[in-house]
Amino acid sequence: MKILVPLKRVADPDNANKIKIPAGGATIDTTGLEWKPNPFDEYALEAALRLTENGATPKTRGGEVIVVTFGPKECETTLRAALATGADRAIRVDAKDDELDGSIVAKALRAIVDKEKPDAVVMGKQAVDGDSNQIGQMLAQHLGWPQATFAATIEEEDGALLVGREVDGGVITLRVKLPALVTVDLRIVAPTSVYSKQTKRDFKYNDGVRFAALPAIMAAKKKPLAELKLAELVSDTALKVQYSRFEAPPSRKAGIKVKDVAELVTRLKNEAKVI
Amino acid sequence: MSDTLIVAELADGKLKKTTHSAITFAKQAGQPFSILVIGAGAKAAAADVTGFGAKSVLVADDASLANYVAERFAPTVVEVARAGGYGVVVSTASSFGKDLMPRVAAALDAGYANDISGVAVDGGKLVYKRPMFAGNAYGHCTVSTAIQIVSVRQSEFTAAEPSGGASEIKDVAVAAAGPGADRVEFIKFDQVKSARPALGEAKVIVAGGRALKERFNEVLEPLADALGAGVGASRAACDAGYAPSDYQVGQTGKIVAPALYFAIGISGAIQHLAGMKGSKVIVAVNKDGDAPIFQVADYGLVADLFGVVPELTSAIAAAKS
Ligand SMILES: Cc1cc2nc3c(=O)[nH]c(=O)nc-3n(C[C@H](O)[C@H](O)[C@H](O)COP(=O)(O)OP(=O)(O)OC[C@H]3O[C@@H](n4cnc5c(N)ncnc54)[C@H](O)[C@@H]3O)c2cc1C
Ligand SMILES: Nc1ncnc2c1ncn2[C@@H]1O[C@H](COP(=O)(O)O)[C@@H](O)[C@H]1O
Description:
Chain A has about 280 residues and is an alpha/beta fold. Chain A has seven helices and 14 strands.
């Protein structure tokens, strides 16, 4: 199977408390923030690697995993890291972050899919900076492909994927025939979440994503990394969503520590009046 | 500005309460609105939304829409939106709305604002407020396409109450299934059956974290019973299988804002806070006095949960009787 995995690098969410919004709120100041691959994209890459191997012999790769990112030169660090964990080749579409919105990235990805003709696109359900949750669904529409969003499990069948989607109230199972688009949720990296046709159904992965070994990090430097220009992929590069202002959320004050259950219940009843 | 089109959400042929948040949005946006009720059984469900002041309630009812898949629903939403010349198409940012609306946006080549927490009218334009970075910043944005696609956060748009009147009900044609529809097959919906209030609607939520281990239900259920509460969980508790995935509260789970939220054995990572810090009163029980959850809790109790939760359960039952 040939799989395309879009990856975005985001400001480290665990350092998001350090986000600064300059007076007037015209921009978000990202200086000093650490960059990290979007966690959902790391999970998507792990899912794609599991789909292109026999879990018992992960060094023998089957199929091809291509990673693609839209962003400035620095984003190559994210791509190299993905190559070190097992992706075969990478594409960087040169763009500044403020030249992009969901529609533009979705259309540009469509152009890449048209050229690369993967069997599947596996990507994060959302980027945790903008929390926009849209590019996968938009791309599926542009391609005329079926979509299975918020996937917690994927099982490869002949020419199809059986996907368990986490939705309000439970789990929906869909079968999507290839080529298809999948966006992944958190639990896709659980030990028994993804099975390629080769992987035995009683095989259990380690929980979480795999890490690159040192020799793989060296070898990744030699793997192909192509660069494209955004304008080669989309003709209409006007943003459809414009941000005019940002603000910090209202801060919530820490309350009090109660000494015991009796005090808590008394305060909930008489002070907060919620029970 | 043109009219607003609300896409209602059904479950088992019944209207879902999420729909009422999208109605609240439409009222705040200030333009006349219609409601599209789409799905198998839509005809019967349509009667539930005729009393909210909509110009019309549009019904797309067809057996082929029995089980929701975006590839079958999106084409009808797109056709209705186009034919009616609507300016905004809105749904609630439930898993249904989040799956469907971007597909609709792409088909209409429209801009999409996901999961907004507020709307303002400024110089004749709608300005949307959106939480970003796990709720650590709000962005204010406008959408520049002729049709704008929006999904709204249920916890931030209080469910609309009926305002009287009787909107006319009109049938609309179900459009041919979209591309990809012949390649997707709905297999099943494994529903987490629960007699408890849905997290989005619960007035009180009891949420547990990794600390509960296999005793998640044993410890939390009696407390939830005493309070008539919904039950939520941290990601760690869901990942470990102590609680169903549907219980997850947070940036990437359910966003809730009940009157009272109990965080029990939850550390308070930013991703969890993003889903519950809009709650009116927060109570935290944690044995680590430095846990970040205490920075947002109105009432904190530093204690071993296995000891105090049963005690709390009886004390609350006693206080309520
Ligand atoms: C992309 C991404 C998305 C995420 N989305 C979400 C999300 O939507 N929701 C979410 O919740 N998390 C989310 N997370 C995970 C989040 O970062 C935390 O890892 C998670 O919330 C931790 O869960 P926890 O508090 O239950 O576990 P822990 O952090 O392990 O905390 C357990 C707590 O229990 C306390 N404790 C232990 N034993 C006892 C006892 N006997 N009595 C009392 N207290 C005790 C400990 O002091 C500790 O504070 C996300 C992470 C990522 C990377
Ligand atoms: N700049 C980008 N480069 C590559 N992939 C991206 C980029 N932005 C978003 N994506 C992909 O789209 C997914 C959904 O993003 P979003 O719809 O913006 O929340 C992410 O998980 C990524 O897989």
